[in-house]
Amino acid sequence: MSLESPLIDRFGRRHTSLRLSVTDRCNLRCFYCMPEHGAQFAPRESLLTFEEITRIVSLLASRCGIRDLRLTGGEPLVRRDLPELVRMISKIDGIKDLSLTTNGLLLPEFARPLRDAGMKRLNISIDTLDEQTFQKISRRQGIDKVIAGIDAAIACGFEVIKLNTTAVRGIAESEIVSLVRFAVDRGVQIRFIEFMPLDTDRSWRTTDVLSGDAIRDIIERELGPLVAVAPPNPSQPASEFEFVGASTETGAAGQRIGLIQSVSKPFCESCDRIRVTADGSIRNCLFSQQEFSLRDLLRSGADDDQLVNRFRTAVDAKAAGHGITEGTFSPPDRPMYSIGG
Questions:
Q1: Residue 2 pLDDT more than 50?
Q2: Domain membership flag for residue 145
Q3: Residue 128 within a domain
Q4: Distance, CA of 156 to CA of 108 (rounded, Å)
Q5: How many domains are contained in the chain?
Q6: pTM score, two decimals?
Q7: In terms of CB atoms within 10 Å, which end of the chain has fewer, N or C?
Q8: Within a domain: residue 294?
Q9: CATH number of the domain that 67 lies in?
Q10: Any idea what the Cα angle at residue 85 is, between residues 82 and 89, rounded to 5°?
C-alpha cells in the first residue's frame, strides 16, 4: 500500500520513529526507573500480542511514514519468544531500521537469535563497570553478565551497537572515563544521558543531573579534546563529538561519543518520535500527561482507518516541549519502566 500521509503535528514535526514497549517487566531495579520492591506490572493479558504489534507497525509503515522502530521495555528480552516478534516485524515493508534497547543481562543467550531474526541495531545500557556500583544503581547483581552480553553482541555483527549511560550526579563522575575507554577498546559508541524525572520515588531534583557539558569536561580532561560533528540523523537525540589530537595516545582518535542533554539542552523542536506502551496506549511524549488507548480499539474490531486516526489524534495533541525546567512541570503518572524507554 502506498503512503497515505505522514504523522505531522501542529508544530510541523514529522514523526518517522516509533518506540514500542513489549513489556513493563525487568530483571533489574534501577533506582532511576523502578522501585526496589512492589513494582506494579500490567496484567499479562493486557499486553499487546505479537499479532497486534505487527498490525500496528504495518499500518504505521505503509500509511504514516514510520521508518524506524525500536523495541523497548522494561527489559524487552524477558518477553517470551521475542526473536519471533523480531522476525515478524523485520518482514514489514517500509521499516528501514529495527533496533532494541536492553540492559544486556540476557544478551549472551539472545544476541545470536536476535541477529538471525533481523535485528539491526542494539542500544545497551551500562552505567558502570564496577559490581558494587552496579548493585547500588540496579539493586541486583550482574555487571559481568552485561559485559559478556556486550561482547556477545559485538561477535554477532550487529550493524550498530551503542552503549547508554544514565548520568546521575554523585555517581557518574567516577565512571565516565572508564566507560569511554571500555567503549573505545571495543569499537562501539557510548552515549551519556542526563538523568530525567522518570523515577518511581519522585525523588528527582535538578541538582541530581550531571549535565552534558560537565560530562564533556570530565572526558576532555582525561582523554583529550572533543569536537562537535554533524549527526547522521538531524532528529536523533544525541549531540555527537569526536576525539582528535592528543587522544591519539589513548587510542580514541576518531572515536565518537554522544551526549543526550534532555534536561539542560532540550531537543523537542526536532523530535520525530511517538510511543506505544506495552499495554497498548499511545504516548506522544515521554513526559506527556495524556495517553490514547489503542488496545481497546484493536480488540473491539476497529478497522485500519480508526487505528490510524487514533495515532493522528495523539500526534496532533503533542505539546511543543516537555517543560522539565518550567515551574509548572509535573512528571508523568507512569514511571519509566511502565512507559517504555
A1: no
A2: yes
A3: yes
A4: 10
A5: 1
A6: 0.92
A7: N
A8: yes
A9: 3.20.20.70
A10: 145
